[in-house]
Write a structure and sequence with these properties.
alpha/beta, Rossmann fold, 29 strands, binds molybdenum atom, metal-binding, Prok_molybdopt-oxidoreductase, 4Fe-4S
Amino acid sequence: MSETRTHCPYCALQCAMTLTAHDAGPLGSAPAVTVAGASFPTSGGRLCRKGATAAQLLGDRPDRLTAPLVRDHRDADLRETSWDEALDRVVSRITALQRRHGPDAIGVFGSGSLTNEKAYSLGKFARTALRTSRIDYNGRFCMASAARAATEVLGLDRGLPFPLTDLDAACTVLLLGSNVADTMPPFVQHLQKARGLGGLIVVDPRRSATAHLTDDGAGHHLAPAPGGDLPLLLSVAHVLLAESLVDDDYLSRRTTGLGAFRHSVGEWWPERAQAVSGVSATRIRWLARHLAAAARASKAGGDPVFILTGRGVEQHRDGTDTAKAAISLTLLLGLPGTRHGGYGTITGQGNGQGGREMGQKADQLPGLRSITDPADRETVARRWGTTADALPGAGLPATQLLHTLGTDRGVKALLVHGANVVVSAPDVRHVERGLRALDLLVVCDVFLSETAAMADVVLPVLQWAEEDGTLTNLEGRILRRRRAVTGPAGARSELWILAELARRLDSPVPLAEEPEEVFAEIRRVTAGSRADYSGLDWERCADVAPYWPLTQTRGTEPSTELSTTGEPVIGTPRLFAERFGHADGRAHLGPITVRPAQPASAHGLTLTTGRLMEHYQSGTQTRRVRELLAVHPEATVSVHPATAAERGLEDGARAELRSATGTLRARVVLDAGLRTDTVFMPFHFGGTGAANRLTAGLLDPLSQMPEFKSTPVDLHPISAADDE
Ligand SMILES: Nc1nc2c(c(=O)[nH]1)N[C@H]1C(S)=C(S)[C@@H](COP(=O)(O)OP(=O)(O)OC[C@H]3O[C@@H](n4cnc5c(=O)[nH]c(N)nc54)[C@H](O)[C@@H]3O)O[C@H]1N2
Ligand SMILES: Nc1nc2c(c(=O)[nH]1)N[C@H]1C(S)=C(S)[C@@H](COP(=O)(O)OP(=O)(O)OC[C@H]3O[C@@H](n4cnc5c(=O)[nH]c(N)nc54)[C@H](O)[C@@H]3O)O[C@H]1N2
Ligand code: SF4
Ligand SMILES: [Mo]
């Protein structure tokens, strides 16, 4: 029996856990691995049911990929083969395609599920071994808008610029488009004080599990129409300014651009915002005054005030502007960088934060450096042992990368690492057609996901507790993921796969294979950057989980601050105390405008999408856990009883949804907590129930984030005879 302390494979809360590998059974059966929560500030020893069942997916299960698979021609089935043959095939096709069409013929799709080391190696592999600009990742679907907003306004993108435990003291928490009660259940413990004071305010078109936390006087639930958040927030800002409820001293000391911001919110008086947001003018005024009073009380010795955003407000065409509006509110209230509160976005994927720092984004090099900035290119090229001239420029963001497949602008081959794009990308039918048009699709995965099932070459990888690595959680803390068990003999570490491919492609820049070596390289390459990891230590990450940025000096000495739980803190737990990330040290307010809405459906219904507690993302992992699948086995659409009755739909009936993009079928779940003009679907299911058959791929022009949360749809009953 052996015990290993590590962190959960799924979301960015990164709850700590102890894995116990029991000795092999008497008949040589595989050793069972059990999971228990371990103490850690974000999770307080707790786990959600996904984390608690995660170990079932380790090791040699019958549905685990245990050998490389190849397809001999388009219509052939996948067959097992050797690593040599699989890698040779990948390399010879890549070489031929690049000879014919140039380096950009090859695309790479990465993920916020990859460890820092894998994400870093993937970006380096694309830019040096493949010399392609065409790399992006699924964080574009997740964190791109909030990241862009924080970079523009605060000058630095770290999801929470303060420890999560700072929320424990809050009297008021405004949660916009986030359903932590389902998506990060242990997070809820940090909202208890605010709830006790009646200060939890949840903004969601649904009465979500998180909105229910406001029941019985614990807070307030505001239910805007999907996409109504931007006018709502601008109107709250309008009231704060009109009623002189802002912190003038803070604004003049710590910000620029107030005039332009004030001008742009001038037209958003509450009665006007009411018409487009679906929240009453009275509630808007109440919210502004409540926030202002709480912030004022905090400065008079009271408790802090926080505004947090999640995917519900970010995954829209105006997601960046909405996140900017939320940040701007906290600036008007004089909060960021003080003890009185601030703004944060709740990062989603396990390594959603590190994943966006390591250089797998189309426009970024490691350390949040810019691929178009000459000095950044020079620094990274030198540290990689190559020249800036040899590095490609900026590539195509994820949706364009996928939606141009099969066109002149599209890549001819795609390597996918840690994403199931035929379930999770917008307009999945479009993506499927594009993948079919490729000359080569290579998928690295643990299981045969819907995307892997379409591949020409499938490479089985080790996962989570079968290998070592680091991840960066939602607070910017770098955590060690430790190896606890041995993976299937036929699977390989992704770092080895990338290094081996680089070797076979005769890359002049070699890639390291061992996580600790890659980690050492990350330290060197990010030194001096905004996301500076240079002061880190492999072992120290395991002991104290330091906060970036960590320069050499900050990395070695404990910060003078202690965490609220009394543990020593290494690195920079709280950002912006003296200055913001911009060169002038100030936060940059600016104008925010509302773009015209897209045409509504003839039936006046809007589909929004999101998550269930039991399933994770595209469901590749959690649909394989029996007790999770049993709770929610198939695609459903939540509909208000009145809306359902109008359409002759009963609870449990099968219904068809149509959008301008496609159709799907799902089972109706009646939910009186929804707005009557809104329906909700989880996106965890593939095939004819995939929510992304309906989403269009409309993009936020600032972040290129797709609009997942607002699609005009019609809803119809289907008879059993029509439904096979
Ligand atoms: N169980 C589970 N947990 C997860 C994940 C998972 O797949 N399953 N994924 C992880 C990842 S990668 C992420 S990004 C996070 C996401 O975590 P969340 O952001 O909490 O997740 P969502 O369910 O996508 O959206 C949150 C809420 O936004 C609401 N919403 C929809 N449209 C709107 C709108 O227009 N305005 C407002 N105000 N609200 C709206 C939805 O009703 C939903 O309740 O969760 C992480 N944790
Ligand atoms: N309609 C709608 N669509 C959405 C969203 C929404 O709210 N609504 N949310 C979006 C968001 S926020 C996100 S984050 C995306 C997520 O959606 P995807 O990008 O599809 O992410 P996952 O489903 O987590 O896919 C991860 C895959 O990687 C595999 N995997 C796990 N670890 C590793 C590893 O170390 N290496 C490799 N190679 N593979 C690994 C898993 O088995 C799984 O098949 O979906 C987006 N799509
Ligand atoms: S909340 Fe997130 S990190 Fe914690 S156990 Fe659940 S999935 Fe894992
Ligand atoms: Mo996400």
